[in-house]
Design a protein that fits this description.
Elements: E1 10-16, E2 19-24, H1 26-32, E3 36-44, H2 47-63, E4 67-71, E5 86-92, H3 95-102, H4 105-114, E6 118-126
Antiparallel strand pairs: 1-2, 3-5, 3-6, 4-5
Length: 128
Amino acid sequence: MPPSSAAAFWKTTSIEPATSVYTLSAYTLSAYTMSAYIIAHVDVTDPQQYEQYKALSSQAIAAHGAEVCIRGGAVEVLEGDWSPSRIVLLKFPDMAAAHAFYDSAEYELARQARAGAAVMRMIAVQGV
């Protein structure tokens, strides 16, 4: 039998009167998969050329099923001296998916288009 702390996540299936099989539901499996995020701080130096990057990166984002949480928008400093001009936040199902996006041929084309158009600072962060 599964541990009592996890009992709510287990589904019991009886095979015979004295035998039970415990399996995890699909919901439980997704609950244990940790999301991952790509956070980018962008300083655009050539807005016209950067438009090409935005178009190509949008295609790569769509191809890899990322959820766009933030793309530009107003930034308000709450603490410290960090004052980024542009922030992008992408959500992925897990860290492997974030790396697959970043390492993809689609995103490589976008990075090439961005060369000279922006200074990019990008990190991948494990979520909860």
